[in-house]
Amino acid sequence: MNEFSEAKSASGFVAKAGRYRWSIVALLFVATTVNYIDRTMLGLLKPELAQEMHWSEDDYGNIVTGFQFAYAFGYLFMGWLMDRLGPKIGYGIAIAVWTVGHVAHGFAASVTAFMAARIALGVGESGHFPAVVRSSSDWFPQKERAYAIGWVNSATTIGVIVAAPTLWVCMELLGLNWRETFLYTGLFGVGLLALWWWWYSNPRESGRVSASELAWIEHDPPENTERVGWGRIIGQREAWAFAIGKFLTDPVWFLMLFWLPSYFATTYDVDLKIVLLPMIIMYLLSDVGSIAGGWLSSRLIQNGKTPNFARKITMVMAGLCVLPLLFVAGMDNMWLAVVLIGLALAGHQAFSTNLLSLPPDMFPRKAVGSVIGLGGFMGGIGGMIMAKSTGLVLDATNGDYTVIFAACTVVYFLAIGAIHILSPRLERSAI
Q1: What is the C-alpha to C-alpha distance for residues 247 and 249, in angstroms, rounded to an integer?
Q2: In the chain, what are the domains?
Q3: Which of 34, 62, 236, 330 has the highest local Cβ count within 10 Å?
Q4: CB 269 within 8 A of CB 327
Q5: Per residue in 328-382, pLDDT tens?
Q6: Do 90 and 84 meet the contact criterion of CB atoms below 8 Å apart?
């Protein structure tokens, strides 16, 4: 009882109960970095591949759409798999599948072949965030969860930043061509799979968690441990609050991930895999947003605010950070554009961190993976629409991003409105 009281009364983000749970954040941080290196490489290589393969913007949009299609439908399966098998086995399968898809890029010689490789990559990578959120709900109480997810979510941008120098080392320093680069970087996934299998377990089975830290991890009210089926999940308004939020906002991140290198190449004649500073600035700003967004809502909850207030006010502030994107298209000053895009990315990541924290707030652990899967499916559908629309708009407007950037500024406020209508108080689901 004394250990439990000590854990529960701890102040700040690191409870007196112990720190081992933060090693799980470090593991998920590494996994996220590898995931986004693999996801980002095609976007960085797009200017070179488009010239070599004679792609139009619509061809590239179709390749990205293939990834989004697989990512969307893969989420439904992978979310269920995390709840069914648990993160250790479920995420291990996901890592293996996306690594095979990544390596397959090195053998592609047509738009169809690249689409097939992206589909395999998308299926595997769709397991990432269900694993992250399910693992976080297993290892962290509600008071710390958004902060933990914020740190893991920040690695999405570290992966994007690291992808560029990784390509430079492979292609410029080692003299590899782009095909060999995909093959050699596939070793990252192999190493990650071995590390995940050796390191990860749930808190009670790890053997490395003290009794007081375990009490802190499990101090939230007990919940129903019954497995929850899809039929019950899709009937819950709270599940659709999360899913619609993902549908509206995920496409913005995919747009930045897959089109920013091309935007800088065509607008400012800058190759982001060679001139790294713009990318580093933009994505470090987004890291600040990810961590700050998680910190703010967690701090508000610790100070007595309801999760409903803490999550939603943070998301509103995050949405405001995206508004300067309205002024970017056609801007002559590249460095000002870098700062404004970085601010928008920071806003997106702060929003995303809190959005990912909603399913554990509203659902029991054994339903979290499936709810994340539903949201990821909807986000992937939105990403498919964005990918196809972006290719068509750019072809029709001779590369003008004005309409595309303007659309990105609106969706966060639509998402907040939808979440509030469907779940006014973010109460626990009646499930």
Answers
A1: 6
A2: 18-200+211-217+227-422 (1.20.1250.20)
A3: 34
A4: no
A5: 988 899 999 999 999 999 999 999 999 989 998 898 877 888 888 899 899 988 8
A6: yes
In this prediction the pTM is: 0.77
Contact 249, 352 (CB under 8 A): yes
The model's pLDDT over 119-140, given as tens digits with 9 standing for 90+, comes to 999 999 999 999 998 898 888 8
Q: Evaluate whether 355 touches 297 at the Cβ level (below 8 Å).
A: no
pLDDT tens digit sequence for 4-53: 444 444 444 444 467 889 999 999 999 999 999 998 898 888 888 888 88
Plot region of 86 (φ>0 → left; ψ -120 to 50 → alpha; else → beta): left
- 200-209 contacts, C-beta under 8 A, 24 or more apart: 200/24, 200/27, 200/87, 200/88, 200/91, 200/135, 201/88, 202/86, 202/88, 202/138, 202/139, 203/21, 203/138, 203/139, 206/20, 208/20, 209/18, 209/20, 209/21
Half-sphere exposure of 5 (CA within 13 A, CB side): 2
Cα-to-chain-centroid distance, residue 209: 28
Burial category of 168 from C-beta neighbours within 10 Å (exposed 0-12, middle 13-18, buried 19 and up): middle
Q: How many CB atoms lie within 10 A of CB 193?
A: 19
Rounded Cα distance, 3 and 255, in Å: 48
